[in-house]
Specification:
By secondary structure, this protein is of the alpha+beta class. Helix content is 30%, strand content 22%. About 5% of the residues have low confidence.
Length: 361
């Protein structure tokens, strides 16, 4: 259940945050802990008092006020007024438990309580129905037909999003590849029928297929201190030859597309991640994991959900099945034990800057 603050509590929160942070400290805390870029999300020239007030109200309106409070508390551990205020709200960060422990007896009760802190209970029928609909909107991207390269997902009736590096060879015309070689295979939900035939609904791309793209960064390839630039987000928007989203499926249900909110969810450490994908080109599979952290400029988010080659371009969802990111790669070195995605907040900001017709709601 979302935290509900009284008006007095909201005003008190603003006061203690003002005492705990200057503008630079507030910006840094939000970026590293929540992936929220203060200067891009709101006007920071109005003065710190108004910035904090707007920030708290936005967190309340968008449903992440508890995350903001916990992040502020952890970011200023020596600030007693802030620590004391948070203690009055009786909220705590998620307890990180060892993944391999099997707990029995009295300790089992503690495990049960910790699990209840990690995620809400979700109505089973609503969750599975929504997940099934999402599955029909995800495709295996093949270049050429039959050769899996990555995963894509409908963000409009005839528009898919994927990682740029999935189609890079086509864009650069490597090995004679062209747009006609791109095939999107939807409804690949079961094992292959035989070695010569794959199930699913296939679709080609439009003649003018590349709506927009952003390349990946050298920092995605090598473990250095460099950070990806603001226009190195490794995404591609691709126009399809047909409006696959208008297909009527079993029961005369329209396929539809995955709705992307203009303000995607704010994610923080230990939040659940759900990634439907075509790992290694296999039928659609599901990976679960947790958020680990953001990079220094918050245009990459790290998590421990499992992925494989072929997973690039998959959507990343919250536990409530709201998209927040685009999966694009593993850590840039073999000894870095995480996978990472690009926050949709960063992608949407760049698309707006480029005046791309909005598909978000």
């Amino acid at each position: 259940m979302a935290l509900n603050l009284t008006l007095n509590q909201q005003e008190e929160l603003e006061k203690v945050v003002l005492k705990a942070y200057d503008l630079n400290g507030l910006e840094r805390m939000l970026r590293l802990k929540l992936g929220f870029k203060l200067g891009e999300e709101m006007n920071t020239n109005r003065g710190l008092k108004y910035v904090v007030s707007d920030l708290v109200q936005k967190a309340v309106d968008d449903g992440w006020i508890e995350k903001l409070i916990i992040a502020a508390k952890e970011g200023a551990p020596q600030n007693l007024p802030l620590q004391e205020f948070v203690s009055t709200l009786n909220i705590k960060p998620v307890e990180k438990l060892p993944k391999e422990n099997i707990v029995t007896g009295e300790q089992g009760n503690r495990l049960e309580k910790a699990v209840r802190k990690r995620a809400p209970l979700i109505p089973f029928a609503a969750f599975t129905s929504k997940l099934s609909a999402i599955g029909s909107r995800i495709c295996r991207i093949e270049i050429p037909k039959g050769t899996a390269q990555g995963t894509g997902w409908l963000v409009g009736p005839d528009l898919i999003m994927t990682a740029y590096h999935v189609i890079e060879k086509v864009v650069k015309e490597v090995d004679g590849l062209a747009d006609a070689d791109i095939v999107c295979r939807f409804d690949y939900l079961s094992a292959t029928i035989n070695q010569h035939a794959l199930p699913g609904r296939i679709c080609k791309v439009a003649v003018q297929y590349l709506v927009d793209y952003s390349p990946y960064s050298r920092a995605d390839l090598e473990a250095t201190n460099d950070e990806p630039g603001p226009e190195e987000l490794d995404y591609a928007l691709i126009r399809l030859h047909e409006a696959v989203g208008n297909d009527l499926l079993d029961g005369d249900i329209r396929r539809g597309f995955i709705e992307v909110p203009e303000n995607p969810p704010v994610m923080t450490e230990n939040d659940f991640v759900i990634i439907p994908q075509h790992p290694d080109g296999r039928m659609l599979e599901l990976a679960l994991g947790e958020i680990l952290k953001y990079n220094k400029i918050a245009n990459r988010v790290q998590y421990d959900a499992n992925t494989e080659p072929g997973s690039s371009g998959s959507p990343c969802f919250t536990i409530n099945l709201v998209p927040f990111g685009l999966h694009h790669a593993s850590g840039p070195a073999n000894n870095l034990a995480y996978n990472q995605g690009v926050p949709l907040r960063s992608i949407i900001k760049l698309l707006k800057k480029r005046n791309i017709s909005p598909f978000w709601t």
